[in-house]
Automatic annotation (TrEMBL):
InterPro entries: SAM-dependent_MTases_sf (IPR029063), Thiopurine_S-MeTrfase (IPR025835), TPMT (IPR008854). This is thiopurine S-methyltransferase. The lineage of its organism: Eukaryota, Metazoa, Chordata, Craniata, Vertebrata. The gene is Tpmt. Belongs to the class I-like SAM-binding methyltransferase superfamily. TPMT family. Gene3D superfamilies: Vaccinia Virus protein VP39 (3.40.50.150). It is found in: Cytoplasm.
Length: 196
């Protein structure tokens, strides 16, 4: 199918913030994602105490689920409202501090220390700021990234994971001529060229 109609589409940071302000967040799921539950063994691979990254995390409930299993969760989200809602909806106390390397960014960390959510553009992150991860749960990030930014996104993601780490990716399949996105349609061939 032709993705030409979506190729030029750009959703601005302001539009994402507005979605959260207007509670126009149909992409948020109140329940844990069944695919994460199904492929949890692939992500964990028998290991405990992992650092797991949630790109464009919103207020994903799976972050608490994995943290409760003893893993460290790090997320990045442009909406401060989403980050604060995550902590309040799970009754998790947290502290907030600036991120010295990123102008205007904040890091919200659970007082237990195992959930750290960065409030900034994902493109402001680097491994020198957040370290490297043992796994990634990408449920709605790649499909939310503007098509023109996919290569930049994939390169960043690859730089943030330890070698041979599992990367669980959920995409959506539909006719891109009938829906302008997001979520954007990412053909399997493009996923292979982005991530190898």
């Amino acid at each position: 199918s032709d993705v030409g109609s979506q190729k030029e589409r750009v959703v601005t940071e302001e539009e994402w913030l507005q979605k959260w302000e207007m509670d126009n967040i149909g992409f948020h799921k109140e329940e844990g994602h069944p695919l994460l539950q199904k492929y949890l063994d692939v992500l964990l691979n028998g290991r405990s105490g992992l650092r797991i990254f949630f790109p464009l995390c919103g207020k994903a409930v799976e972050m608490k689920w994995l943290a409760d299993m003893g893993h460290s969760v790090v997320g990045v989200e442009v909406s401060e409202q989403a980050v604060k809602e995550f902590f309040s909806e799970h009754s998790l106390p947290y502290c907030e501090e600036p991120v010295p390397e990123i102008s205007g960014a904040k890091m919200f960390q659970s007082t237990s220390g195992n959930i750290s959510l960065y409030c900034c553009s994902i493109y402001d992150l680097s491994s020198s700021i957040v370290g490297k991860f043992d796994g990634v749960w990408d449920r709605g990030a790649l499909v939310a990234v503007n098509p023109c930014d996919r290569q930049r996104y994939a390169s960043l993601m690859m730089s943030l994971v330890e070698k041979n780490s599992p990367y669980l990716l959920v995409t959506v399949s539909y006719d891109p001529n009938k829906h302008k996105g997001p979520p954007f349609y990412v053909p399997e061939s493009e996923i292979k060229s982005l991530f190898g």
